[in-house]
Amino acid sequence: MVGGGPNGLAAALHLARNGVSVTILEAKSTVGGGARSGEAGYPGLINDYCSAVHPLGIGSPFWQAVDLERYGLHWRWPDVDCAHPLDDGRAGVLYQSVDQTAAGMGPDGKRWKRLVGDLAEHFDDLSADLLGPVIGIPSHPFRLASFGPRAVLPASVLARYLRTDTARALYGGAAAHAFTRLDRPLTASLGLMVLAGGHRYGWAVAEGGSGAITTAVVDALGDYDVTIATDTFVAGRADIPDADTVLLDLTPAQVLAIYGDDLPPRVARAYRRFRVGSSAFKVDFAIAGDVPWTNPDCRRAGTVHLGGTFEEIAATEKARAAGRLVERPFVLVGQQYLADPGRSSGNINPLWSYAHVPRGFDGDATELVIAQIERFAPGFRDTIVHTQATNAAGLAAYNPNYAFGDIIGGANDGLQLVLRPRLSLDPYSTGVDGVYLCSQSAPPGAGIHGMCGFNAAERALTHLGFPRQLA
Known about the structure:
Elements: H1 6-17, E1 22-25, E2 37-38, E3 47-48, H2 55-58, H3 61-66, E4 75-76, E5 80-85, E6 91-94, H4 98-103, H5 109-121, H6 123-130, H7 141-151, H8 155-158, H9 165-175, H10 188-201, E7 205-206, H11 211-221, E8 226-229, E9 246-248, H12 252-259, H13 265-273, E10 279-288, E11 301-306, H14 310-321, E12 331-334, E13 348-357, H15 366-376, H16 380-383, E14 384-390, H17 392-398, E15 435-437, H18 451-464
Parallel strand pairs: 1-8, 5-11, 9-15
Antiparallel strand pairs: 2-3, 4-7, 5-6, 10-13, 10-14, 11-12, 12-13
């Protein structure tokens, strides 16, 4: 196993649970990838270094099968899952309950239920098909057929179904997690899945930080024949010990660098064409007290999306995709300490945030992030005790899989949104015998759900001739 991010760890665990001896080679001093936590420049606070809120993590079929709670993981939920404020003080408000969410939407209440209610109710059936390769025989074809007509739409078209600007903005903030312009086909899909997963399981955070997920998985690995070798950088194929199968928690570009001419030409061409996504600009704050949001529901929300109306979000995401840094970028704010107060130190709280910026942006957008928060929370600037900013280069230094600051494993646009990393019946296969791609560049994509690793490990088990004993 090359790479010890969430998907590499999930793949290792699935192999080990089926009787395979596994060695994990991790370049950094600790495993975890996007699921690590610790201090970010201010002592006593717990900050999530990348992934922070996990509606698809807690609902992951693989993590549920493993039962990470047995290994010390505790999930925590805020009073409000997500809020999306507007300039006039109103906000779209998302609760785990579909009914409670719809009740606050006025004329859009019934429409919200029709839009996501059935998806939430049958989320487990949907996820069984959607958290795997797109090309295949679905386990629940009727559920998938019901989802399909909504999923193939551009998010900008689906948003027209909602009549109020607060409901459209709430949907738009979820759709913006795709990190691409919202007027392209298929962009409705991720927003619907994020909302449906949230309604089914809530937008939970891990007690003690996202690194607690990694700690639980490592503890689970301790029950099996697994060796973890940290500070072990793999530059080429010669750095990988002889093995019956190799799984790569890497980007397609990194696979090219390691396997080079060993890849079949068609695979090498596809990996060279694989497009990196846009960048994140992350700012970790230490603040005195709470954020002084104008809207009271934002003060109870674990996640706050900042981008104004749906139309504004669509315009800024289009500009960002074209390489322009906008004055008011889409910003995600995480108030994980509301659900998990142990992350704070006295009256000083950690505030997690990142902005959508153009690919490879190497400047400093800290002031843009502060201004966007201040826009909906006047006086926020006065609460700031400390800031630590991380641009594209910093994100890539933290995790080489985040090349150019791309934290989602590749652009989510065009056919690459669903056919990643290439068009194939087995997208995990690299074409090299026994070597599989298990990173978030493979289906189903980004998120601390471990399903990219699980799916790739399933292919490796078939290759090894092992009976499939455990799901």
